[in-house]
């Protein structure tokens, strides 16, 4: 290992160049620090520890889950989830004419089933988006 503390600027420049360090805007102290860090990093790589510690793990590409349906920018919840239970309940209320289901109906359903009210309302609007409904529903009494 080199003793960078005793080296002059003229001696540090070729050492930086050999190490692949850009030294144009560095003073002597900064060159010494960069060379010290670089040499310690190479020592760790030689032992095989640095590669495992510093190399980022590549992220796998996100793939759509098997069996999920995406329509109109909304993803249908997976089977057996609480969100899917809300969607199934909305399907049951809707019957033939899905466009007549209101958020009030969803709230009543949440109250009777003990579901979280906010989650039910969110899922109601996702369900409407999935089925392509937009705008207000006219209440027919």
Q: What's the layout of helices and strands?
A:
Blueprint: H1 9-19, H2 28-47, H3 49-54, E1 70-71, E2 74-75, H4 82-94, H5 103-113, H6 117-130
Antiparallel strand pairs: 1-2
Structure, described:
The structure is a single chain. α1 packs parallel to α2 and α4 packs across α6. The model has no long low-confidence stretch (mean pLDDT 81). The chain is built from six helices and two strands. It folds into two domains: 51 residues, no CATH class; 61 residues, no CATH class. The protein has 141 residues and is an all-alpha fold. The N and C termini lie far apart (87 Å). The protein has a two-stranded antiparallel sheet.
Amount of helix = 40-55%
C-alpha-based Rg, rounded = 32 Å
The parts where pLDDT drops under 50 for at least 5 residues are: none
Beta-strand segment tally? 2
The protein's oligomeric status is single chain
Mean pLDDT metric: 81
- Largest sheet, spatial ordering of strands: 1-2
Shape: rod-shaped
Taken together, the total number of domains comes to: 2
User: What is the count of helical runs?
Assistant: 6
Structural class: mainly alpha
Spell out the key features of this protein.
single chain, 3% strand, two-stranded antiparallel sheet, 6 helices, mainly alpha, 2 domains
Quick gist of this model?
This protein is mainly alpha-helical.
